[in-house]
Structures are given as structure tokens and as C-alpha cells.
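User: Batch of two.

Assistant: Item 1 of 2:
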Amino acid sequence: MMEIQLHLRNIESKDWATLVFVFSLVLISLAKSNFESRFNDYIRLFVSDKYTKIYRESSHLMSGFNVLLYAINAISFSFFIQLVVSHFGYGIKTDWVLFVRIFTLLNVFVLSKFLVEKIIATTFGIEEIIEQFNLQKVTFRTYLGLLLLPITVILFYGNYLTNSMINVLIVVLLLANLLTYVISLKNYQNLVIGKMFYFILYLCALEIAPYYFIFYLITKN
């Protein structure tokens, strides 16, 4: 008699990721359709300073346009982190629960940091500087998230991710963030000079220390 053996077959579902990516496209469409002129200036950010000159007031920080871009940015970076985590064997890239955890932790970190920044800025009397500085950071970092989104889509549905590619992407993101600081300091140097001491304390306490501790925890564990 023929013996039949049954083997469990694991099927990885990517439907949830497809829905999230489509949702990201919907957010981009909303940003373009509702803020068409602003969006057109925004996508030329790295070749023209028109956007930063027009929308440099701190009142634009919590605008609907920036909220939409922040949501896209959070999705993009959450997927990138999940791809890196899965590449090194600490998770599965198709695990939607892992994505929710990363997305939640990332947003908690960003929003907590933002609230602490507001408190410290008020304490030091540098609210105007920090709000404009944050606006610049949000502008450039959401732009990076927008550029990173199609890359994460390609990497998610393909098996192209390597250690070298991860290193290159991380270096590019770090250099782009460093460029953000340089541009912000250049644009608001007149405001910063008057309260340089407090601004340096702010940079050390909230712009350098948190990322250093995260890097330390990751490398130690």
C-alpha cells in the first residue's frame, strides 16, 4: 500500500502589505489633489528652494499637507525597518503584526520626542527657533520618506536586499539628515546666533542623544 505523507506548507500572505502600499498612494494622491501648487513646489525640493522660502512659517508645521506626508513617511520607514529586521533574521517581512509594532513604536518615539522638544523649547525660550527648525526637518525627512517608498516596494516584493545595499541606504539616509541640519542652520542662523548656547543643548539632548542610545541598544543586543 502506498504511504501518503502530508507536509505543512507555509504560505506567506502579502495582501496586507499591498493594501498599505495602495493606501500610501491614496495619501499621495490626496496631497497632490488638495494642495496641488504646494505639492508641485515640494517635489522639486532638492533642486529649488522655492518651497522652503514660501512655507517657512512655523504655522505650516501642523498643516494638513504635512500630516499627509508624515503618514506616508511613517509607513515608508516602518517598512524599511521591517525589511532590515527580517534580513538579519529577527522577523519575517510578511508579518503584519511586526509591521504594526514597528509602526507604533516609531510613531510613539517621534511624537514623544516632539512633545519633549516643545517643553524644552518653552523652558529655554527658544520656541520660534525650534518650531521653524522642526518644520525644516519635517519637510526634508518626509521628502526622504517619499523617495524611500518605491524602494521599499521593490525590496519587499523581490529578494534584492543585501548587506551592502542596507549599508548604502543607511549611509545615504544619515547624510541626507545631516544635510537637513546644515540647511536649517544656514536658513535660521540669525535666530540661532542669539541663543546659541541653548540651541546646542537642544541638539545634544534631543537630536543626538536619543539616536545614540538607540544605536547603542541595537548593537549591544
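Item 2 of 2:
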Amino acid sequence: MTDITIYHNPACGTSRNTLALIRNSGTEPTVILYLETPPPRNELVKLIADMGISVRALLRKNTEPYERLGLAEDRFSDDELLDAMQAHPILINRPVVVTPLGTKLCRPSEAVLDILPDPQQGAFTKEDGEMVIDEHGNRVSH
């Protein structure tokens, strides 16, 4: 069994599709409902470093705290952005997936295929009807 963790928001279609793609590879991941159990600051810093992205790149912009706190302004340090994410976990973009092959912000959901160690077990169609994996377990190109 491959050790995979997903920082998941069940209200998000992209997050649901990503979780379903992980399960379609035959693996049941550790699911962290990050809005209920946000990652501690040191873990959040590690996830960002492992993804090779900036703190700002993990910020979810289309959410109320982003506007209210004025986070679009360039005057915030990484520490201040991390403080905001800790205080308002909805600001953490999702889903973040950790596998033995890497850590990735999986937007779009099929980005998870790049870090899944096990192949897809069968066809997969996203909630919006877009086919991502064919009946042979192969990625469909668009």
C-alpha cells in the first residue's frame, strides 16, 4: 500500500476529483480535512518547500478573507502570509497531495497523475463529465 496524503476539502470539486483519481490507482490515502485540522505552521512550510512554490502561490485568492485582509497587496512577508493561512485555513489552496514521488498542488485534479506511484486501475471521468482516464487506465489527452 502506497503512503499518500491529501489535504482535502470535500466541498471542492477539484479536491473530490483528485481524491477519486488517487483511489482509482488502488490506494486509499490519508485524508486530512484541512479546514477542520489545518497543518501546523512547520508542516505548512515543509509542504510549500517540497512543492517548490512560493508561500503566495499556495494562497487561495477567490475567498472572503483574501479580499478583507488585502492580501493581493505585495506588502506582506511570507511570515505574514503564513500567519493568515493559519488563522484562516480557507486561504490554503487545495488539494495538496503528498506521495513518495513528490508533493503537489493538484489544480487541475489530473495533475495528481504526475506523482501517483501506481497506475490507474480503470476509466475515470471527472464530475463535470470530462474523461481523464480511458477504460485501459491510460490518460486521455485533450
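The two ends are 31 Å apart (CA to CA).
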